[in-house]
Every structure is written in C-alpha cells, then in structure tokens.
Amino acid sequence: MAPQEQFPPQQQEPPGLTGAMDPTPDHGEQSYRGTGRLAGRRALITGGDSGIGRATAIAFAREGADVAIGYLDVEQPDAEETARLVREAGRTACLLPGDLTDEAFARGIAQQAADGLGGLDVLVNNAGYQMARGTSIDTLDSAEMDRVIRTNLYALLWVTQGALAHLPSGGVIINVSSIQAYEPSGKLVDYASTKAAINNITVNLAAELGPRGIRVNAVAPGPIWTPLQPATQEAEHLPEFGTNVPLGRAGQPAEVAPALVFLASDGDASYVSGTVLGVTGGRPVF
Ligand code: NAD
Ligand code: MG
Asked: Which residues sit with their C-beta closer than 6 Å to ligand 1?
C-alpha cells in the first residue's frame, strides 16, 4: 500500500461516523477477493458497522459467510452501508442496533444473530471504546472508566456467554485486542488495561472451549484509520497518527480483515487457538 499522506486534524463525537472522515478509510471494498474460505458460516461481528468491523464483514461475506452486525443506534448510516456491501456479495446481512453496555442487550445479541442467520458459527468481539485523556492517572474519571471497561470487558464477556448457547463444535471466537496491551500509552491507561485483559480472557476461553471444539484467538491491531480515532484522540495529534510504527504509517481496516479471515477459517487455522495475531505495522506483540 502507498505511504499514507498526513491525516488532516479533525474531531468527531464518539462513536464517530465513516462519512465524516477525511480521508475515507479503505475497508477492502475494491480489493478484497474471497475464495470460499468461510462458505456457509454464520458470523456475528460486534461494532461491525465501521472500521475493522466493516472490513471484516466485507471479507467474511466475500468468503461466503452470512453476517450479523451489532452497532449503536446513532451509527445506523454506517450499519446500512456495511449491510449493503454484505448483500452485494450475495450473503445475508442482519442489523442489530443496541448498546452493549446494557447487560440484557449484550447477553441477548447472539440469540438475535442466530435467529436472523439460522444459527451462529463465528463470534467476533470487535466493539470497543477508548478516550484519550491527560497522561496523569489523576485525569481518570469514573464515568469514563465505566464506559471503557463495560464496553471492552463486561460486554465482551456477556456477548460471549450468550454466544456459547449457539456455537457448535467447529465454532470460532475472535477477540479484538490492541498493540495497547503490549505498549500501553499513558493517555489510554484504562483502555490499554482492558486490552491486556482481553488477551488473558482469550487464553482462558481457549483452554475452556478447546475440549468443545471451539477455537478462541485474538487480533491485536496497531494504529488503524477508523472512526474511533477522530472520535477519541485530540484533533491536533491526528496528522502524526501511525507514524511511530516501523512501517511508518497507519494501517487501513482492509489490512486487518485478512487476519480475522485466517483465524475464522477452519481450512487455514484448524490448529490455531489461544493466540494473539498482531497487525501492528511492526510494533511487537510479545
Ligand atoms: P470503530 O469505531 O469503527 O469500531 C468500534 C465500534 O464499537 C463502533 O463502530 C461501535 O459500533 C462499537 N461500539 C462501541 N461502543 C459500543 C456500545 N456501547 N454498544 C455497541 N457497540 C459499541 O473503530 P475500530 O478502530 O474499527 O474499532 C474496532 C476494535 O478495534 C475496537 O475493539 C478497538 O479497540 C480495536 N482497535 C482499534 C485500533 C485502531 O487504531 N483503530 C487499534 C487497536 C485496536
Ligand atoms: Mg462505528
């Protein structure tokens, strides 16, 4: 991929929308070619409206999977665009708006996905929230910590609990971690801690669910150009976003999705469980 020109300073309210981003992210709309690696699989992708989730939805659909996506009500335009792309690939798209920090909704979303798709084989725990703050721990406030931890950890566990009533032997769970689990930034201390915890949960679940024939892995992205960034980082820091990795640029959502396809595919990753696959532009994930 060509080197990234600098991102212009820009700001959105969380969760942010794709249409307001400059430049528009690349979700693989023009580039992703499927080869039937997920034929007939039924996947739930939380936060599948935009960013890494949208790129994953496109790739999964082009690999032959039907896709349900979770998202917040305010993201309806992004969700409809992802659904359009899934349907354009000839697959079923199921839209599941709602707030995953609501325990009842989070516990029930897998049932809704299974109802909409006729079953569930793959869960991608991709929804996440962060907010950049001052570098001092003094700048943490309880309401923000609650939002980060409920979204990234409680909701992930609730959604997973709900999904386990549906996932068969051969089922797959993929959690979305982060480079922040390995190289935590001071201004993301609460978020980074949830991503380290997600790595641990991935190991725990792989151990528990292996005997049921369910593989559990995580992907750890580095800096990726998604709505999360203009919605949660200071506008003036966006021009340098991603320039501190060995490859010298931010990644695009389209560059993360193939890692999720690999982990979801039984043809490719049948003996891969309990691991974290870094897609970081060169930063270490060990
Ligand atoms: P994104 O904003 O496109 O996706 C995050 C999604 O999370 C949103 O679209 C939203 O639908 C969902 N979400 C957030 N709070 C929710 C709630 N309360 N209820 C329901 N849904 C909710 O951004 P993204 O960067 O594609 O993020 C996807 C995942 O990737 C997140 O877990 C994020 O932490 C992780 N990640 C992103 C980066 C990056 O640089 N963009 C790096 C490492 C990890
Ligand atoms: Mg979104």
From this structure: 15-16, 47, 49-53, 70-72, 75, 99-101, 126-129, 151, 176, 178, 221, 223-224, 226-229
pLDDT in tens, 112-158: 999 999 999 999 999 999 999 888 899 999 999 999 999 999 999 99
Say if pTM beats, i.e. exceeds, 0.90.
Answer: yes
Which residue's entry shows tokens 């000839």?
90
Measuring CA to CA, which residue among 25, 110, 23, 93 is closest to residue 58? 93
CA distances from 24 to 7, 29, 41, 184 (A): 10, 12, 29, 27
Pick the CATH number of 36-279 from 3.90.180.10, 3.30.428.10, 3.40.50.720, 3.50.50.60: 3.40.50.720
List the chain domain ranges.
36-279
